[in-house]
Amino acid sequence: LHNKFLPHNKRLSTLALFFSFLCDSACKHCLIWTKRPVNYLPFEKIKEIMENKAITKNTTVALAGGEYLLHPDAVEIMGWFRDNHRNFDLLTNALKPELAIEAVKKHPPRRLFISLDGDKDSYLHMRGKDGYDGVIKVIEELNNVVPISLMFTLSPYNDFKDLEHVAGICKKYNTD
What we know:
Layout: H1 2-5, E1 14-18, H2 43-50, E2 60-64, H3 74-84, E3 88-92, H4 97-106, E4 111-115, H5 120-127, H6 132-142, E5 148-151, H7 160-173
Parallel strand pairs: 1-2, 2-3, 3-4, 4-5
Helix pairs in contact: 4-6
């Protein structure tokens, strides 16, 4: 309503910041990992963006990428968000499970979104990396730390049985 009645003073409900196109996965359905040159959103630019009057304490900010955690200042940036804008979410492929666990425990986001597109074989086939066990490890380690949502992409490289598998993981760990 605010944005409708005050069009010159709009407020964002959600903001997705892509910190880099760098990704350590090799997804057949995405190809973001092939983009070159690799550029990073500078920390100072992030602070500048967050000072915009359209961003309020109620704006949900998604830390995303490629793979957000590959940004050289990823953990430090999460600390800044923890101290200055608590309403942030982290999106990850969890291919670096130890880093994901450490970052989330140190600077917990409001929610953690993890990509999981099927069982172990489908994950490898679709994403080109053997990361399934790492995803499960992150879920197990952080399930009682922050709310977790699993993100599933249906593509020509997986099927509805994979969706059922991911739904089973959600049920097992009581995640979204």
